[in-house]
UniProtKB/TrEMBL annotation, chain A:
Region (Disordered): 1-40, 294-319, 432-500
UniProt main location, coarse: nucleus
Segments forming domain Myb-like: 133-186
Stated name of the protein: SWR1-complex protein 4
One term of GO molecular function: transcription corepressor activity
InterPro entries according to UniProt: DAMP1_SANT-like, Homeodomain-like_sf, SANT/Myb, Swc4/Dmap1
SMART domains per the UniProt record, alphabetical: SANT
GO aspect biological process, one term: chromatin remodeling
Location(s), subcellular: Nucleus
Keywords: Chromatin regulator, Nucleus, Transcription, Transcription regulation
Biased composition (Basic and acidic residues): 30-40
UniProtKB/TrEMBL annotation, chain B:
PROSITE patterns given in the database record: ACTINS_ACT_LIKE (PS01132)
InterPro entries noted in UniProt: Actin, Actin/actin-like_CS, ATPase_NBD
Pfam families: Actin
Entries under SMART domains matching the protein: ACTIN (SM00268)
SUPFAM superfamilies linked to this entry: Actin-like ATPase domain
PANTHER family the record matches: ACTIN
Protein known as: Actin-like protein Arp4p
Similarity field: Belongs to the actin family.
Entry superkingdom: Eukaryota
Length: 500, 445
């Protein structure tokens, strides 16, 4: 260590400074040296090279550290170790601490103000006999409870932990709270209240305690906690399965919507098809409309987009002024007018140019086209060429394509459900292997009445029983729901979802 | 009042209080506001009886030894050897005793000398000038804490005194008001639910598990196995010279024959326990994912050399079997020993099972791991594995700093005794004289 300065000097061929070992703080020479130290050279560097500083360094602007904040500005603060009085104490204990000299010695201790006590509720013997008698509590025990609550500042968990009334019955936390808050409420109600009614009500509200509700809640929490790992696993598995079903459902419905739109919506003029992907009502509505649309009119009513490849266009008639006369005229000349939806605000969307019918020959959906054409081929129908594309023919053709597509879809659905049944069966077999009673679960209200189950199936406490019966039920219903699913697809999973 | 504006607002106000933390292994003492104790002295002490050989054959420090009062209480006239040069220096005929048992002080006769040594000899301070905060185990008795107050007020003339619970203090040291404190000490392992700074006594669980772990390690070392003979646990104080030997070869050393005769059984037991502890601390460990013989084997052996010069590689199987005692007991051990101390997971389960349902999430989200025994390699991770198997959302606070981990109780006391709002809780000498012993339980809840 000490050698380093000398070493550096000898390496740099700098002559020895007048005093050897300058890194050691020797008193006088150091002082004089330091006095000569030019500004701009760090002290350590100066100690190394001595007074032989390169002249250049001193010419640069002095490198400076960040200015030290000048705290206190008013020079040195004197602190002194002195005793203080703590206002929060009832005795005269004087502890000592460091305090600024000159400040008031007897000033209030700064932490005493945190010593706030809650207002304890007390009652007189008279009040007790008049208002607070309770068959299950003696006055002594009530006193004991109130003392504990005061002692532990209303921390009921601690109060309950320390509650040991000799020869008293076992009290639950809820018992204690009910008694305490009950007494407090009675006291407030029956004492003259200083202040407004709102304040009184607020205080009363803060003291309400519904024991039954609390107990029910606790039981519910307990039942959650006492689920076995298997039950939790089962729940998770079921949840995953549900999510999978929902996802499938969504995809299926989306495909079908697209199909409907292609088939009967824009091209064949079904009234607006909801693009939303959920809702039992929507689906049912659509299905109805679809059937009607296929069988009946195929006139475009509210087309969404004008066909791009229209060649001939007729001027759009004013929709409002379709008089009886013009109707007759149209019928005579086989003119089909599109009705513009009054509510639709976008004029562009409402516009339907004139088009040739043959342009609107129904086409199977691209994804299904190969299978549809295969199907039609099997029936000996060429779907690529429509010899006489009259309106009726087109409608019939569209219906045909639609039917074919539906058939293909149904086949797909059947295959899928078959596979689902397989997996469920496998799972059932696995479960049967472990727990015997679950397999032949007796009929429960769940099976009989879906609605009732929906209503009270929300409690997770019941969730376990719901789970097991549900899996049993879904097995039994497997066949039936499969045949239904393609028609009323949105219904099943929705119901199941509610049961959860 | 003026100072509130300039002072950082952490609520501290140091009054130069002293903090004393009694553990079975060591007594920790220091100034409140510091982050490590100034004095750490062994709780075990040596003593020489004035009239020699009254009842010489006594075994000390052995967990299984029956509570013989006369063993723990050296004659009042006996000469005591306390501190770093206490029991660890060999003296002819010196016995070793420990005032603690089951985490509580059983014999108060030697408590004043111990405290005096820590405060006067090591810290060089005068207790009469400082308020003193002492720690206690959560299962301490009223008589015990009153006795402690008496010692501090009457013998040390302290101006103010407070006794606080190690569970609560450990929670404070971790910065928590509510916590589930898991403390693995030398003699006891405990699980303490703390809510708002109060111990929930009904959920308190403790047992002598660390002693079982120690006994297991000792058995493992001293009993011969297939690949080595039983190891002699001779301390270096009894060895005159030794020769370097190869791994696994019987040691070549010469005993200090002169000392053998003058060595008491209690000193011998203390020294051997020390050797076992040393071995545990350097090679012992816990498997993080639970017991798996193959995996333990794969962890590889560790080399260790005993004072005799005997050295060997200890396989993963041996090393991890020691820490495993904290978590599982083999069925044969259970069968042969009906009142085996509970394992850590069992302690936690019974503790949590006693607490209110609404509290469980709070406690499990604030698990504090503390105590020297938890410094086992892999202990904290193993605990996390075990707990997450039982409970869905567990968060374990385990200080990585070994001092903080081992002396968490002291650190919490240091924090508490330097809080401005705490100073109203001290039992002052005046109050002690006025109210007597009853004030201790009134004030320190
Ligand atoms: N690195 C380590 N690995 C394993 N054990 C250790 C380690 N360090 C210390 N220990 C053990 O920790 C124990 C001491 O812990 P601690 O200081 O918390 O106990 P204590 O508080 O004195 O005792 P108690 O709480 O039982 O009264 C000793 O038994 C020691 O062997
Ligand atoms: Mg301890």
């Amino acid at each position: 260590m000490a050698a380093s300065a000398a070493d550096v000097r000898s390496i740099l061929a700098i002559p020895e400074p007048p005093v050897a070992g300058s890194s050691q703080p020797t008193k006088k020479p150091q002082g004089s040296e330091r006095a000569k130290k030019p500004d701009g050279i760090p002290r350590e560097l100066y100690a190394l090279i001595g007074p032989h500083a390169p002249t250049l360094a001193a010419q640069f602007t002095k490198p400076r550290l960040k200015q030290k904040p000048n705290l206190g500005a008013g020079g040195r603060v004197k602190w002194e170790w002195r005793p203080f009085k703590n206002g929060a104490r009832s005795d005269g204990l004087r502890l000592s601490h460091w305090a600024k000299a000159g400040t008031d010695t007897e000033s209030e201790y700064q932490f005493a103000k945190y010593n706030v006590q809650g207002t304890p509720y007390v009652y007189t013997q008279d009040e007790y006999t008049r208002l607070l008698e309770d068959s299950s509590w003696t006055k002594e025990e009530t006193d004991y409870l109130f003392n504990l609550v005061r002692e532990y500042d209303g921390r009921f968990f601690v109060v309950h932990d320390r509650y040991e009334y000799p020869n008293g019955p076992r009290r639950s936390l809820e018992d204690l709270k009910e008694r305490y808050f009950g007494v407090c409420r009675k006291l407030i109600r029956n004492r003259p209240w200083i202040g407004d009614e709102a304040g009184k009500k607020a205080v009363l509200d803060s003291l309400t305690f519904d024991k039954d509700r609390e107990v029910a809640r606790k039981n519910y929490v307990a039942s959650l906690e006492h689920r076995t790992p298997e039950q939790i696993a089962e729940e998770d598995a079921l949840y995953l399965e549900l999510e999978k079903l929902k996802e499938n459902e969504r995809r299926f419905k989306k495909d079908r919507d697209e199909l409907l739109r292609t088939l009967c919506g824009i091209e064949s003029g079904l009234p607006d098809i909801h693009a939303d992907e959920d809702g039992l009502a929507g689906a049912a509505f659509e299905t109805k409309r679809k059937k009607k649309g296929v069988v009946g009119s195929v006139e475009p009513q509210t087309p969404v987009t004008p066909s791009a490849n229209t060649v001939i266009s007729l001027p759009q008639p004013q929709p409002k002024k379709t008089s009886a006369k013009s109707a007759a005229y149209d019928a005579l000349h086989c003119i089909v007018r599109t009705e513009v939806d009054q509510t639709s605000s976008s004029t562009k969307a409402a516009h339907v140019p004139v088009h040739l019918r043959s342009y609107k020959v129904a086409q199977p959906k691209a994804a299904l086209a190969p299978r549809v054409s295969q199907l039609l081929g099997e029936l000996g129908i060429s779907h690529t060429r429509l010899v006489m594309p009259t309106r009726d023919n087109l409608a019939k053709f569209a219906a045909l394509i639609d039917a074919a597509q539906q058939l293909v879809e149904i086949k797909k659905a059947v295959d899928k459900h078959d596979q689902d049944i397989q997996t469920t069966k496998a799972r059932l077999a696995a479960l049967r292997g472990e727990t015997v009673e679950e397999g032949d679960a007796p009929e429960t209200p769940m099976d009989v009445d879906d609605g009732a189950a929906d209503a009270d199936g929300e409690g997770d406490g019941r969730a376990q029983s719901v789970m097991s019966t549900r899996s049993a039920r879904s097995r039994r219903q497997g066949r039936r729901s499969m045949s239904v699913s393609s028609v009323d697809t949105a219904g099943g999973p929705n119901k199941r979802q509610k049961q959860r | 009042m003026q100072s509130t504006s300039t002072k950082p607002n952490y609520g501290g106000d140091e009054v130069a209080a002293l903090v004393l933390d009694f553990g079975s292994s060591s007594l920790r003492a220091g100034y409140a506001g510091d982050d490590t104790p100034k004095a750490i002295i062994p709780t075990s002490f040596g003593y020489l009886e004035e009239e020699a050989a009254s009842n010489g054959d006594v075994s000390m420090g052995d967990a299984s030894a029956p509570e013989g009062e006369q063993l723990q209480a050296p004659k009042p006239k006996a000469k005591l050897y306390i501190g770093q040069n206490g029991p660890s220096l060999w003296r002819r005929g010196m016995h070793v005793a420990n005032p603690m048992n089951d985490g509580l002080i059983q014999n108060f006769d030697t408590v004043p000398p111990l405290i005096n040594h820590a405060l006067s000899e090591v810290m060089r301070c005068n207790a009469a000038e400082h308020p003193v905060l002492v720690t206690e185990a959560a299962w301490n008795t009223t008589a015990n804490r009153e006795r402690m107050a008496e010692i501090m007020f009457e013998e040390f003339q302290v101006p103010a005194f407070y006794i606080a619970n190690t569970g609560v203090l450990n929670a404070f040291a971790a910065g928590k008001g509510s916590a589930l404190v898991i403390d693995i000490g030398q003699s006891t392992a405990s699980v303490t639910p703390v809510v708002d700074g109060f111990v929930l006594r009904k959920g308190l669980q403790h047992c002598a598990l660390p002693q079982l772990v120690h006994a297991h390690a000792r058995h493992l070392l001293t009993s011969p196995s297939s690949n080595r003979p039983g190891i002699q646990l001779l301390p270096h104080q009894l060895i005159a010279s030794k020769m370097p030997v190869d791994v696994g070869v019987p040691p070549r050393f010469t005993l200090r024959e002169d000392r053998i005769a003058g060595t008491t059984d209690s000193w011998r037991a203390w020294a051997e326990a020390h050797e076992v502890d040393e071995w545990i601390q350097s090679v012992g460990g816990c498997l993080v994912q639970g017991w798996n013989e193959q995996f333990a084997q794969q962890q590889g052996p560790r080399h260790y050399e005993f004072p005799t010069g005997y050295n060997n590689y200890f396989t993963g199987l041996e090393r991890f079997a020691v820490g495993e005692q904290f978590f599982t007991h083999s069925t044969q051990l259970q069968a042969s020993n009906p009142n085996l101390p509970k394992t850590i997971p069992a302690l936690i389960m019974s503790s949590i099972g006693q607490t209110d349902l609404d509290l469980r999430q709070v406690l499990l989200g604030n698990v504090v791991l503390t105590g020297g025994g938890s410094l086992f390699a892999g202990f904290a991770d193993r605990l996390a594995t075990e707990m997450s198997r039982q409970f869905p959302h567990v968060k374990i606070h385990a200080p990585g700093n070994p001092t903080e981990r081992r002396y968490g109780g002291w650190l919490g006391g240091s924090i508490l005794a330097s809080l401005g709002t705490f100073h109203q809780l001290w039992i002052s000498k005046e109050e002690w004289q006025e109210h007597g012993k009853a004030i201790v339980s009134q004030r320190c809840k």
